[in-house]
């Protein structure tokens, strides 16, 4: 089983505060299904506008500067070469030659805002652009559209392809949860499930890969300096209703992940 076909990720650089209980809140976006379909392997050659691009066999140390452009409406919702749906709220992007998947740090060089994202698609077709990003990524980079001046840096492939913990390869589907009535909705509150905070980034990636591989939704790593140290938090969220939190907590426990806490942002 190719581990690349089990990943389901969303990444961002945000920090959390405060702990509390959870009222019922609204969440109406169904999550992506993670499948063990072994035919979902990206072709070695990507062709666009009469040009051919060969996929890199090893992206270790890759860095590049260029422009990011947004997916258009017709591209959102399509399936990527590794059989993942391109979601407008996903923290993902397309690149012409990086291995799929590859995790990169992308930085808006005009305002220095950064986010960690997953390269899971091929593109952009326009050779003048370096990457193609979702609206969610653009938003975290501080822009709404247009050409974004960016730099990208590949994160360690060891952390994303050889996790320390075992991978569950059976098909996993996260079902949409019931939407509460307007009388119980409280859109002002967001909740996250914290799975660990690590000084060693590789340990954070190991935990991230573990929860992503079993199909848990909205997995992210957030990094922040605390004094001289850089700490890396692995979390799930945001979530907006009690039923959704309980559903995820049960899945964590069923997969042996019992060391977590729920916090209110």
Number of strands: 12
Give the integer mean of the pLDDT values: 75
Please trace the helix and strand order, writing H or E for each element.
EEEEEEEHEHEHEEHE
Class based on secondary structure composition and strand pairing: alpha+beta
Number of domains: 2
Poorly predicted spans: 1-38, 157-187
How much helicity do the residues have?
Answer: 10-25%
Continuous helix count: 4
N-to-C terminal Cα separation, in Å? 37 Å
Strand order of the largest sheet: 3-7-4-6-5-8
The CATH homologous superfamily of the largest domain corresponds to Sporulation related repeat
CATH topology of the largest domain: Alpha-Beta Plaits
Name of the CATH first level of the largest domain: Alpha Beta
Tell me which CATH architecture of the largest domain applies here. Answer: 2-Layer Sandwich
Strand content: 25-35%
Alpha carbon gyration radius: 18 Å
- Biggest sheet descriptor: 6 strands, mixed, barrel
Detailed description of the structure:
This is Endolytic peptidoglycan transglycosylase RlpA. Keywords: Signal. It holds the Pfam family DPBB_1. It comes from uncultured Thiotrichaceae bacterium. One of its GO terms (molecular function) is peptidoglycan binding. By secondary structure, the chain is an alpha+beta fold. It has two domains: 126 residues, Sporulation related repeat (Alpha-Beta Plaits); 113 residues, RlpA-like domain (Barwin-like endoglucanases, Beta Barrel), CATH 2.40.40.10. Helix content is 14%, strand content 28%. It contains four helices and twelve strands, in the order E-E-E-E-E-E-E-H-E-H-E-H-E-E-H-E. A six-stranded mixed β-barrel has the order 3-7-4-6-5-8. It has a four-stranded antiparallel sheet with strand order 10-11-9-12. A hairpin with a 5-residue loop joins strand 5 and strand 6. The longest helix has 13 residues. It is globular and about 50 Å long. The chain starts with 44 loop residues before the first strand and ends with a strand.
